[in-house]
Specification:
The protein is 38% helix and 28% strand. It has one domain: minor pseudopilin epsh domain (minor pseudopilin epsh fold, 3-Layer(bab) Sandwich), CATH 3.55.40. A hairpin with a 3-residue loop joins β1 and β2. It starts with 10 loop residues before the first helix and ends in a 10-residue tail after the last strand. A 4-stranded antiparallel β-sheet has the order 3-2-1-5. A 3-stranded antiparallel β-sheet has the order 4-6-7, covered by helices on one side. It is an alpha+beta fold.
Length: 146
């Protein structure tokens, strides 16, 4: 008499399952890394957008003009009357390969005590893969991040 044990998997079944898992992983990993890059890029854009709102709110609250001075990879929020740097952020530390550009001749945006601004467009670039931009209207409205 033979007793057949039907519990468990055979070696061939396990190897086939591992091979299918490996193929699916090989397909998913490049898409996942692209997703992470896009999330990082969006995160950097949100931080800049929030800091611009912070500068606008500080100008309204303090009743003083606040200026945001941009460099290629960093920016400073400066109180104009005292030239004191209120906030300084270096994007290259947390977000490498991301650069900032402004379309204005002077790379800065100022917010008055009523929340109005001198206007401009902030362009955030991630290498050569793409860019995100938002505009600052003369009324002080900071446009959405696309």
């Amino acid at each position: 008499m033979q007793i057949k044990n039907t519990l468990g998997f055979t070696l061939i079944e396990l190897l086939i399952a591992l091979m299918i898992t490996g193929i699916m992983t090989a397909i998913a990993v490049p898409r996942f890394s692209g997703l992470i890059k896009n999330y990082t890029f969006m995160s950097a854009a949100r931080i800049i957008w929030l800091d611009l709102h912070r500068a606008k709110m500080m100008a309204i609250k303090q009743g003083k003009t606040m200026r945001v001075d941009f460099n290629a990879t960093s920016y400073n929020i400066v109180r104009v009357d005292t030239s004191a740097v209120v906030l300084s952020r270096n994007l290259s530390l947390a977000y490498p390969n991301i650069t900032l550009n402004t379309t204005e001749t002077t790379p800065s945006v100022s917010f008055g005590s009523t929340g109005t601004a001198n206007g401009g467009t902030i362009v955030l670039q991630q290498g050569s893969t793409g860019n995100k931009q938002f505009t600052i209207a003369l009324t002080g409205r900071i446009g959405p991040i696309p």
